[in-house]
Amino acid sequence: MTKRTFLIIVILAVSIFVGSASAQTRRLGKTCGDPNIPCRGSEGFRSWELTFAIPKNAVIYESETFYAIILKSVKLKNVNDCENAITEDERLKTQELFPKNKVFALKCSEAGDIYYTNVANEVSFLGVYAGKTLPEANAFLKTVKATGKFPGAAVRRMRAGINGT
Hints:
By secondary structure, the chain is of the alpha+beta class. It has helices at 3-26, 88-95, 134-146, and strands at residues 28-29, 31-32, 51-52, 60-63, 66-75, 103-106, 115-116, 123-131, 154-158, 160-163. It has one domain (29-163). The strands form 3 sheets. It has a 4-stranded mixed beta sheet with strand order 1-4-10-7. A 4-stranded antiparallel beta sheet has the order 6-8-5-9.
């Protein structure tokens, strides 16, 4: 291999790496943690989903990293076990407790639904947005625990995403 060929290979490899890194940076949508503030670019989400800004015609897209408090989780028989999933009525009642923090749920899994990272498969959960940083989340966890309703509540770092392929 000549020096010129080697140099071309190195330049191509660096170009590919830099291009993929910048593409990853652009695909992260702003998380909308306050249900009272309109979230531009989050049209089309369901009421129980944590919204985040996505560009029009996006097929695969993820939110920025955020922290949530997992309030409750239920093991499902399989990903389509909607019978035992967290209900919308339960989510709405919980939302009343935290009016400035979006309460969201992962129900059963259907094609095109939102997904969340850092959670087990075949689980339905009820969570509440707790902020962008761990100190924010830990402070909000104290508020959650003060209600006395969620003794097993725990902080979780995650992302939300869609895969419409």
